[in-house]
Amino acid sequence: MCQRLAAYPIPETLHHEDFHDANIYVDDGHYVFSDWGESGVAHPFCTLLVTSRVIAWRLELAPAAPELVRLRDIYLEPWTRYASRKELIAAYDLAYQVGMVCRALTWHRLLAGAETQFKAEYAEAVSGWLREFLEAATEPTA
Length: 142
What we know:
globular; 4 strands; 6 helices; Aminoglycoside 3'-phosphotransferase, Chain: A, domain 2
């Protein structure tokens, strides 16, 4: 899957793996992004996994809701210099799935050194993301 994603000529970029409204603040007209603990360098489309999930949850939207499709399309627009719209959507679909594995690995890393109560509270995080990855491999995204 990663080789198929690498086939699209889209450069890696700074990736904020927990990009949602609780980590974005507006201060005097400027946006401030917080909680960079799960950031790294990755495919830029992986970022939308958590973003779109949180938006869908807060607004009670279905995974393929028109609002989420529009969000994806707006996000992909600046990348059209690297690939066609069709190729970008295919890369997005792959990155969305790869992002689930990234989340599982992040949770594994976080839980490895965590206190017992934290581990118990988030015990399903790693297996849950991996299970979603396996299920998503057979379902198209928005």
